[in-house]
Design a protein that fits this description.
The chain has 3 helices and 8 strands. It is an alpha+beta fold and 111 residues long.
């Protein structure tokens, strides 16, 4: 019963104008983030997204875990030219720019 409730709450398809419906999932996530082990706290949660027809995952990291674990390795600027009907999008490859590097302080070097 509890598993079904949590699954239902996290997999809701919420319209942007109804973002208040996320309050339950925020409370659940805050509760889960409060647990941990003797060695360390929980760094994040991963859960499937119903919008991606169960083939994609959402990842939620605590801010501390994000800054401790996330290490960008590349960066690219792209232009989305149109949305596709099945949750995709079309890109214009001529407008993409790949960064030349990312410094340890987060600065991104351009072409």
């Amino acid at each position: 019963m509890i598993d079904a409730f949590i699954t239902n709450e996290f997999l809701q398809d919420v319209n942007e104008s109804q973002s208040d419906q996320y309050k339950t999932t925020i409370a659940i996530a805050e509760l889960l983030f409060s647990f941990g082990t003797e060695l360390r706290p929980i760094d994040g949660l991963a859960y499937p997204t119903i919008v991606g027809t169960w083939t994609h995952a959402n990842i939620a990291l605590s801010p501390d875990a994000f800054y401790r674990l996330y290490k960008p390795i590349s960066c690219q600027r792209i232009k989305v030219t149109r949305l596709l009907p099945n949750l995709g999008f079309s890109l214009d490859p001529r407008l993409g720019l790949m960064a030349t590097g990312i410094k340890s302080n987060g600065d991104i070097g351009g072409p």
